[in-house]
């Protein structure tokens, strides 16, 4: 399914950080929404700031407008404040994008497990994210770091336990 | 010499004549009033027949409403003048415009965070019709204009700005004076305007132009585009043609500050 761009994407001023505070607030909210939707659509879990500038999200070639690096940083800071972004380095050049938070993923995974009557089974992380059985699920292809955090969230809730196995980690669901 | 008309006798005679005329006048007036009463009765009956015959028509047919309104204007009647009375109760004219007013307010509120409270009459019409559904009554732009005038009279912050042959409907009490209005009209053509365009078309000083544009930015009616070739462009979401048919998405609704 092709990505549906919001109306702001084709509105030239959208790519200029607005001087008016109220308008800027609306603009940033729309950018946050757009970045998260886009990453979700493309199943992107990390972003590199320099690469991002050339990505279609921040660069609309059709109307010849792009978000400046400074503006991208402002958008990322907004996302970080909302809990959807984490910097991977001190220089803020790469980040993790959480278009879904770990707790939300945990819930989805657990739903799948209980729906298929697999409570009390043990899975390796690989089986969960890349196994044939999970191919149709949303969490298929979930990157390890996110999978682990999701399972940790479930563990906190008492719904799972992460176990260390010979060749990696696994999880048991309750 | 004996003069006629002057003297006590003449005066008394005059007074008697006056008294008789007065009496006659009273009698005449009473006659007239009786006649007028009768005519009014007949008129009232006719109006009631008219009302029952045309009430449906008024609700369903926008062209009929225009002609009806024009007829009322000719005889000096404003069917929307008061909530009670013959016009609204018997004909339901008031109800129709009241409900339309409520719908207009809803559409404007739903889009306010996008366009700052400014919307073209075309877009408003399009969305009102959409909201009414396939089987609802027909609503014309004339109907919208009348309903908005009513809203304006009730002090709801509504106003209409003539632009490019139609109107921009303002639904927030942003202060817009003649200077602002004229710049909005200039922006209508392309959906944006620049300082140079204002200076060329209106022959204003740079400062006056900047002042107006800053005000539009401050009121949330315009956005700044500083990547335009040459000089910054000031765009108005209300005039952004792509928005005309774009519904408010759930995401957008979540972005709206309460």
UniProtKB/TrEMBL annotation, chain A:
Q: Name one GO molecular function term.
A: protein homodimerization activity
Query: Main localization of the protein?
Result: cytoplasm
Keyword list (alphabetical) reads: Cytoplasm, Protein transport, Transport
Q: Name one GO cellular component term.
A: ESCRT II complex
Query: Source organism's superkingdom?
Result: Eukaryota
Compartments, record wording: Cytoplasm
Q: Which Gene3D superfamilies match?
A: Winged helix' DNA-binding domain. Chain C. Domain 1 (1.10.10.570), Winged helix-like DNA-binding domain superfamily/Winged helix DNA-binding domain (1.10.10.10)
Question: Which GO BP annotation is one of this protein's?
Answer: macroautophagy
Q: Where is coiled-coil annotated? A: none
| Protein family | Belongs to the VPS25 family.
Q: Specify the protein name.
A: Vacuolar protein-sorting-associated protein 25
Origin species: Carassius auratus
Q: Which gene encodes it?
A: vps25
TrEMBL record, chain B:
Q: Name one GO biological process term.
A: protein transport to vacuole involved in ubiquitin-dependent protein catabolic process via the multivesicular body sorting pathway
Q: Could you confirm whether the keyword DNA-binding appears in this record?
A: no
Chief location? cytoplasm
Please name the InterPro entries in this protein's record. ESCRT-2_cplx_Snf8, Snf8/Vps36, WH-like_DNA-bd_sf, WH_DNA-bd_sf
Location in the cell reads: Cytoplasm
Q: Which UniProt keywords apply?
A: Coiled coil, Cytoplasm, Protein transport, Transport
What is one GO cellular-component annotation here?
A: ESCRT II complex
Query: What does the UniProt function comment say about this protein?
Result: Component of the endosomal sorting complex required for transport II (ESCRT-II), which is required for multivesicular body (MVB) formation and sorting of endosomal cargo proteins into MVBs.
Q: State whether it acts alone or in a complex, and with which partners, per the record.
A: Component of the endosomal sorting complex required for transport II (ESCRT-II).
Family membership noted in the UniProt record:
Belongs to the SNF8 family.
Question: What is the name of the protein in this document?
Answer: Vacuolar-sorting protein SNF8
Q: Which organism is it from?
A: Carassius auratus (Goldfish)
Gene that encodes it: snf8
